Amino acid sequence: MYLTKEKKEEIFAKHSESATNTGSSEGQIALFTFRINHLTEHLKRNRKDFNTERSLVKLVGKRRNILDYLIKNDIVRYREIIKELGIRK
Predict the structure, then answer these.
(1) What is residue 45's predicted lDDT score, i.e. its pLDDT?
(2) Which pTM value belongs to this model?
(3) Closest CA to 84 of 25, 4, 22
(4) What is the crossing angle of helices 75-85 and 25-45, to 10°?
(5) Nearest to residue 77, comparing CAs of 3, 1, 25?
(6) Burial class (CB in 10 A: 0-12, 13-18, 19+), 16
(7) Are 63 and 79 in contact (CB under 8 A)?
(8) List of the chain residues with pLDDT < 70
(9) According to DSSP H, which parts of the chain are helical?
(10) d(CA 87, CA 89)
(11) CB atoms within 10 A of CB 11
């Protein structure tokens, strides 16, 4: 399994206020980015896996919605998370 409990806690500890705060926007964006990167690598090896491709598109949409929310409410936090994770605008 690529996403263990320890890996999830590490992502949330690094990108949100605490490891237990799983609802923070930055933590969710970081988790989605980790999953998107994993699925992208999978699709490079398995070009015809259309179910995974659909899941990837849905994840990108969810991350985009959270990023749009962050832009409206706190542009500084948005810019920090974009820079930290290397997400294109």
Answers:
(1) 97
(2) 0.92
(3) 25
(4) 30
(5) 25
(6) buried
(7) no
(8) none
(9) 5-15, 25-45, 50-73, 75-85
(10) 6
(11) 20
